[in-house]
Amino acid sequence: MNNNLKEQVLRSSGVNVLKCMRCGKCSGTCPSYDEMEYHPHQFVYMVEKGDIETLMNSKSIYKCLTCFACVDRCPRNVEPAKVVEAVRLAAIRKQGNNHLIADSIPEMLDEDLPQQAIVTAFRKYTK
Amino acid sequence: MQVNDNKEFQPLIVAFCCNWCSYAGADLSGTNRLNYPTNVKIIRVPCSCRVNPMFILRAFQKGADGVILCGCHPGDCHYTSGNYFTRRRMTLLFSMLDFLGIERDRTRVEWVSAAEGAKFAATMNEFTEAVKKLGPNRRLEDLRCRKQ
Amino acid sequence: MQRIGVFVCHCGTNIAATVDVKAVAEALSHESGVVISQEYQYMCSEAGQNLIKDSIKEYGLTGVVVCSCSPRMHENTFRKAAAAAGLNPYLVEIANIREQCSWIHKDIATATEKAIILGKAAIAKVHLNAPLTAGESPVAKRALVIGGGIAGIQTALDIAEAGFEVDIVEKEATIGGKMAQIDKTFPTLDCAACILTPKMVEASQNELITIHSYSEVSAVKGFVGNFTVTIKKKTRFVDETKCTGCGLCTEACPMKKVPNAFNLGLDNRSAIYIPFAQAVPKVATIDPNYCLKLKGGTVKEKVCGKCAAACTVGAINYHQQDEYIEQKYGAIIVATGFNPIKLDKYDEFAYNQCPDVVTSLELERLMNAAGPNGGTLLRPSDKTHPHKIVFVQCVGSRCDDSKGKPYCSKICCMYTAKHAMLIREKYPDTEVYVFYIDVRTPGKNFDEFYRRAVEQYNVHYIKGMVGKVTPKADGTIDVQASDLLSNEQLHIDADMVVLATAIEPDKTARPLATMLTTQMDTNDFFTEAHAKLRPVESATAGIFLSGACQGPKDIPETVAQASAAASKAIGLLVKNSITCNPCVAHSNELMCNGCSACEKVCPYGAITYQDKEFRMPDRTTAIRRVASVNPAVCQGCGACTVACPSGAMDLNGFSNSQIMAEVDAICK
Question: What is the count of structural domains for chain A?
């Protein structure tokens, strides 16, 4: 349990995790559900418990498409995607925690991948 | 202002209590023999919204050192919305008293239900102590009213 | 000159142990106006009261101060004693020297000093007490019930049983409300129509009950015991007195493509219609929005008139107009009920795109023997039998304000269990899934009922919410949901999806509340006078609440509340007149400037404005707008007295000068 991290995630996301009534609609609606180790409803619950480091070390934070389906459908306006985003930010802010490293880009390159996607990914996954 | 033999300052405190919650709460603290100082004198009003800010100013003018207004908890008013009026009116009055330089601790609004005898006694103890610390009310007291 | 008597009670040793009562009596005897000051062992005893009575007569007292226990305890006792001796009871004041003095203090000297001050304050107040007489206001012996659902019917029947006339105003063409649309009732699974329709008939046959169907309340004036209500009888283009309900007109009507509102649009009816077979009153109504003659475009359509030709009693009148009736009532009972919410906001459930996604109320009609499919459960889209049905709970309930209703709709868990059970019973080959967040089943035999659905009927209850419903090309519906307990995402190929839709108060409730000056919460449910102790009365005297207009309720609770509201109304109607609390506000018309500040803060709507003629100093007369308080409605909170900028408004028994005098006496 890391209260500073929890505080940081809560502040940067602007989300009140206590509003969650644990209905699981966010996870019911999530298109990346099967890709994720921790699902949107777990993100909200684990942030509430202060278990942020587990989330930061999980690949799940990069699997979220930020499609905002959970934000749109959450009955109680908890906005789980913003929590995921905030945890991702917390991970990136840690020195050397970039998810994307410039050197490894060439081997990941794909003919069909638009250049813009790489720029976007850089913005999103690196400091 | 009352001064007794050992010269400790004894503030005069006027408490306005609504008939349905706070006055009953005060009765309950009596029934439970919960002590609070004799400095507190209670005036019964039907609802806390019956208390005109003028009454409070009058009390200060006549030499009261502290005034406390007790009503039902928000949402519990016998007249459904009276204490909401109280809350707004007192917010205004208190900001005016602030402007006049009257210590904020001399006035207070407290919600006390009919079941909160212990809270009533505790509030009165605490409030009396707070006013005691402030010393006599000199700003608003009208010396012409003082009993010789 | 005032002649005041002071009576100090020992209360055994309760007071006398910490307060020197003799000293108090002595000190107070020197106050101005005090002609006698006595102390006695027990003032509330027979002998103590006689002491007061005798003193009133002997000294010709004009005011009495009793220094004793709390006025909440014995104020009435001493007022009665004073009245018995010929003194106005409101000339008695109590100084509370027990609960608020002797019991909380230990030091005799300071306690005595405080008791004297409290006594002085009471004396200062009693100097200004005015004799008050409780006013009386007559009670009209007739009740109005607004809404003809099960709540309204039950209330009306109970009031009629007590021998009072009752009118039911129902906005639809028939009474019966939502219960008439329901198929079976939980937890006993008896048929709703079988228990409701006899009550409807009973109401229509009761001589004391008048049913105004297809009518609305258009204006309410007056106050408790004395309401004047204008009822608008909407034109149904059929003479109610002549129509026999034979139904020939509905067969003759050529316009058969009107969505049947009673079946929630799941099938069609004719433009002239009787809502359902057991409708009360069983009278036809023409829907002017669809009738060819009343609305029709072409000349050929405008001459239709087939229903009139088919009618054997000549009941149809195309020129009928709205009719207004005015009636006096002593009590009004609101029973406006509920509606399922509109599901337009919830695109994820595909309600507007797929006919096989239905609300629970629609499912009731689909399963009902009198429903569109004659009681066989078929998919609305292709009329095939569904083999996999998914129920979604909490649709629109328990939401953030921006997303739906913040409250729990209370009945959904139970009716969903009922639906699941009925479907499994009737069609054992059908798989039933229920997605729930929490299953809430408080109530007698309720949890047992839900457990039966799980254990006996093998209904699959899955903890988790449905995230997305997608109609597929093959006619099935993909339901994507999370299973929170096994932590996986599910996809179910369902044939039908049933949404347990949140319920909300009827749309007519808010304008009605404005007319009645009753209070509502932010969800448009009527607010009861006290959440715990006065659950069926509104804060406005003479207005009572029955059924789901006050909050979500199931049928047993609705009926219980309906009978409770009826008994409260009867308690009012049996009185020939009501005694009003004399401690009410009154305005000094000479000081009132007609600013309306008091009217705005009055929670009871007791203050109205009148134009009155005044004689001015220069001997002219002028007409001014001044406030006047209806003493029968005012409850005496005093909010208006503080709001009044000119000091015209004052409160009997707690006047400005009286409270000031108390303040002065304490601070002296």
Answer: 2
Least confident of C363-367, C538-542, C594-598: C538-542
Range of the domain at C638: 585-652
Which residues are within 8 A (CB) of C594 and not within 5 positions of it... i.e. 6 or more apart? C609, C624, C625, C626, C627
CB contact under 8 Å between C403 and A28, yes or no, is no
Average pLDDT taken over every residue of chain C: 93
CB contact under 8 A, C601 and B80: no
Q: Which amino acid belongs to residue A83?
A: V
**Are A57 and A114 in a shared domain?**
no
Residues 6+ apart with CB under 8 A from C219: C229, C230, C515
| Phi, psi of C297, deg, nearest 5 | -85, -50
Q: Which of B76-80, C107-111, C559-563, C622-626 has the lowest mean pLDDT?
A: B76-80
Same domain as A112, residue A82 = no
Kindly report the pTM of this predicted structure: 0.77
How many other C-beta atoms are found inside a 10 Å radius of the C-beta of residue C271? Answer: 26
CATH number of the domain that C11 lies in? 3.40.50.960
Longest dimension (CA), chain C: 102
Question: Which positions in chain B touch C641 (Cβ < 8 Å)?
Answer: 50, 52
CA distance C20 to chain A (A): 58
**Same-domain check for residues C359 and C454:** yes
What is the ipTM, given to two decimal places?
0.94
Do C270 and C214 sit in the same domain of this protein? no
Q: Are residues C529 and C539 in the same domain?
A: yes
User: Please, which chains are in contact with A (at least 3 CB pairs closer than 8 A)?
Assistant: C
Contact between C480 and A28 using a beta-carbon 8 Å cutoff:
yes
What average pLDDT does the segment A107-121 reach?
Answer: 84
Structure tokens, C563:
């009978």
Give the structural domain span for A86. Answer: 3-94
Residue A13 and residue A66 in one domain: yes
Assess whether A36 and A74 both reside in one domain. yes
The residue of A20, A25, A46 whose CB has the most chain C CBs within 10 angstroms, and thus the best one to mutate to test that interface, is A25
SS (H, E, C) C339-406: EECCCCCCHHHCCCCCCCEEEHHHHHHHHCCCCCCCCCCCCCCCCCCCCEEEEEEEECCCCCCCCCCC
**Count of CB contacts below 8 A, A vs C?**
75
Specify whether A81 is located in the same domain as A60: yes
Domains in chain B: ranges and CATH: 13-136 (3.40.50)
- Tell me how many domains chain C contains: 5
Tell me the average pLDDT across C35-63.
94
A48 and A78 together in one domain: yes
Condensed to tens digits (0 to 9), the pLDDT of residues C443-458 reads 999 999 999 999 999 9
> Is the domain of A88 the same as that of A120?
no
On whether residue C136 sits in a domain, the answer given is no
Best of C398, C438, C465, C501 to mutate (most A CBs within 10 Å, chain A) = C465
* Minimal Cβ distance to C482: which of A27, A69, A75: A27
The answer on A87 and A108 residing in a single domain is no
The encoded tokens of residue C116 equal: 């004297």
Q: Is residue C668 part of a domain?
A: no
- Mutate one of A17, A26, A27 to test the C interface: name it (highest C CB count within 10 A): A27
Residue B148, pLDDT > 60, answer no
Rounded Cα–Cα distance for residues B100 and B139 (Å):
9
Provide the pLDDT confidence category of residue B143 given band limits of 50, 70 and 90.
confident
For C53-100, the pLDDT digits (tens) are 999 999 999 999 999 999 988 999 999 999 999 999 999 999 999 999
According to DSSP, residue A34 is labeled G
Q: Which residues contact C62 (CB under 8 A, 6 or more apart)?
A: C2, C3, C4, C87, C91
Are the Cβ atoms of A27 and C400 closer than 8 angstroms? Answer: no
- Are C and B neighbours with ≥3 CB pairs closer than 8 A? yes
* CATH number, domain with residue C513: 3.50.50.60
Token pair for C370: 């009198």
